[in-house]
Amino acid sequence: MRLRLSLVLAAACGLAALLPAGPPAAAAEIVIEDFTMHPETRWRFFTDGVMGGVSTGQLVMVTGDGPPHARLTGQVSTANNGGFIQMRHDLAAPPPAGATGLRLIVRGNDQRYFAHLRNAATGMPWQYYQAPFEVTGTWTELRLPFAAFRASGRWMPASPDPRSLTSVGIVAYGRDHSAEIEVREVGFY
Questions:
Q1: pTM of the entire structure?
Q2: What is d(CA 74, CA 58) in angstroms, rounded to the nearest whole number?
Q3: How confident is the chain (189 residues) per 10-residue block, as mean pLDDT?
Q4: DSSP string, 20-54
Q5: Which of 8, 127, 159, 189 has its CA 20 to 30 A from that of 81?
Q6: From start to end of the chain, where are the E strands?
Q7: What is the DSSP letter of 65?
């Protein structure tokens, strides 16, 4: 009762702006992929073979083993200037205004993987913005702030402008290793 009366008096006196605003509102989450409706039409698989590398792998859409998801597996090799396998989704539209990062639900083989974002500043095929993340054998939600993504080249802005994002990629990259990552959900927050 005292708090309510104090708020009414503060508002009446024009002092409401001096009171704490309370907890911040939760940012809206936007799911761009949950792997339920023909995801194979939206995701592409790439290896470093497009530039002469020798990494191998595959992208499989899984529907009968728990929740629908994508499974990216393969052998990443740095031989012949290679070193990646990737699954990529071209965005129909950039994230909504106010989005601050990429949200993933993933699991895998206890390795480090990377999220790649492309936008208007990534005009060449080898350009991207990259953020690392770790996976375990348990489904885990990860939130990667846009500010955590780093440019792959010197002539790009240091971090991506989310208003011009054109694609999201999940990548096994940069070292010789066996890749196995599963992705259940991709979105923005």
A1: 0.84
A2: 6
A3: 34 35 56 96 96 96 93 98 97 95 98 97 93 98 98 93 97 98 98
A4: ---SPPPPPPEEEE-S-S-GGGTEEEEEGGGGT--
A5: 159
A6: 30-33, 43-47, 56-62, 69-76, 84-90, 101-108, 112-119, 129-134, 140-145, 150-151, 165-173, 177-188
A7: S
